[in-house]
Design a protein that fits this description.
The structure is a homodimer. In chain A, 74% of the residues lie in helices and 1% in strands. In chain A, a hairpin with a 2-residue loop joins strand 1 and strand 2. The first copy, chain A, is built from 15 helices and two strands. Chain A is an all-alpha fold. In chain A, helix 4 runs parallel beside helix 7 and helix 4 runs antiparallel to helix 10. A two-stranded antiparallel sheet of chain A has the order 1-2.
Chain lengths: 297, 297
């Protein structure tokens, strides 16, 4: 385990590095007429956020002995996919959220039409930026982007969003809840870990370890999200709390209660850390797992 | 020039081939829970349509002496991008259209939330399907998908849609109109031609020819669209006519009048056919250009 100070230092440095790279990718030139579209894309993409997915991609690349600079184009692509999904998720016809990271959501600022196109733009740009900036051999680029597309699609994040929409106002069972989260939030975390491994030319054993780690922290992340929605405040989180109860959503808390949910999150975190044995252990990824378990926002 | 019968025969055969391939790509297995998403994606993608873009990709591949089977994954990807854009374009917050190809639009059938996700799903699946099914060398796959992403993005189709949205209810000048169409409809036609060339390993001269052909038929296509909107009927077109006037849109017809618009379309078609010299001429592509000029729907 890293000390809290050392861990925060690395997280800050990594987050800055990813943020700078995203800023330079978004500094698009040319036609002024489309300016509002790039502005809307940048508004969400450059709003901060924890950058956990790109940081994971880079960390898994290092854990496999790879050059994390080679992982950067895929790390950035993943962050674009994540932000596209947030913009569309917040739309009035979806979750209808007006606040995200303490700021008005994309459609509140730019209008629904531009927000739809800004999400589309980020999804497309994820592939464009990775294809254009990758310095990996072409067959590695293709493999990494297969992972990205698969984890984003019908049997990944988008599929999870559909299950989420269809579960609204209904009580669902644990199996459905687990499937939904495995896809909706878990799939991109899985993509993060696996793309990092792919860039570094990981062994089969390492890929299994990365899958298990991603599964463990993905579930932890979601369980803690559900817990914070009932125990935190809007100021602390930067987004409204109590929205799950308001939308009559089934969550890990409604199914298990806060205490049991927290116990299971602890268990998933330990499984994630255990899986790091495939890499001979990794202090940063170990500390990251515990930080997600113990996060307050 | 091919005879009308021979041309229609090839178009029908090509359209069937593409349609069959798209059907097999959409026959997704696994989780039942996301079924509504794949159903919504298939509803639009498999609704017919002229399949002009994928047919162009395959035809340019053949014109450069390539194997059009190798172009198929990129041809299908392009058709997915085209259909994603139609679904989002029809949304209430965009053009708010309720009829497309003689059937209710996606959001009318599946609801706005699923329609947004179905569009997202097709955009993502375009890349996924090409990455997974390409039998081209990896560096060719990467090159072809760079073209696809670039022509779809901010400086391609999506950028054109933004200019379109911002021009609504305003009168715009010819320069803006040309830029909008070069991007909104022209970019994907350009992608179609260039991806076919890339798969076949075309010469620089052939690529220039493909660009010029795409530009010529793209403008022709749009000018004829504008003309049909004032001269055709809803029954004939399968979509409402007179919508441009209703939305006070500037079109080639409002700027030039029907006669001059038709004359310019003729001119663009001739430029497109001229550009086929780079391929030693191509009867199918020549006939296709004239058929777009003379189309009644």
């Amino acid at each position: 385990m890293l000390s809290k100070e050392r861990f925060n230092e690395i997280m800050q440095a990594e987050s800055n590095l990813v943020g700078c790279e995203l800023e330079s990718l978004m500094a698009l030139e040319g036609e002024k007429r489309q300016h509002v579209l790039t502005e809307a894309m940048a508004y969400s993409l450059l709003a901060g956020g924890k950058r956990i997915r790109p940081i994971l991609t880079r960390a898994f690349c290092r854990a496999c002995g790879g050059d994390d600079g080679l992982a950067m184009p895929f790390a950035c692509a993943l962050e674009m996919i994540h932000n596209f999904s947030l913009i569309h998720d917040d739309l009035p016809c979806m979750d209808d959220d007006e606040l995200r990271r303490g700021r008005p959501t994309n459609h509140v600022v730019f209008g629904e039409d531009i927000a739809v196109l800004a999400g589309d733009g980020l999804l497309n740009m994820a592939f464009e930026t990775a294809l254009k900036n990758a310095r990996t051999p072409a067959h590695i680029t293709v493999e990494a982007l297969k992972i990205l597309a698969e984890c984003t699609g019908v049997y990944g994040m988008l599929g999870g969003q559909v299950i989420d929409l269809q579960s609204e106002g209904k009580s669902v069972d644990m199996d459905t809840l687990l499937t939904m989260h495995r896809l909706k939030t878990g799939a991109l975390i899985r993509a993060a870990a696996l793309m990092g491994c792919t860039v570094a030319g990981a062994s089969a054993q390492q890929i299994c370890g990365a899958e298990a780690y991603a599964k463990g922290i993905g579930l932890t992340f979601q369980i803690i999200d559900d817990i914070l929605d009932v125990t935190s405040s809007t100021e602390e989180l930067g987004k409204p709390v109590g929205s799950d109860a308001e939308n009559q959503k089934t969550t890990f808390v409604t199914l298990l209660g806060v205490e049991e949910a927290r116990r299971q999150a602890q268990m998933h975190t330990e499984a994630a850390v255990e899986a790091l044995q495939a890499f001979g252990g990794d202090e940063f990824l170990e500390t990251l797992a515990y930080s997600l378990l113990n996060r307050k926002k």
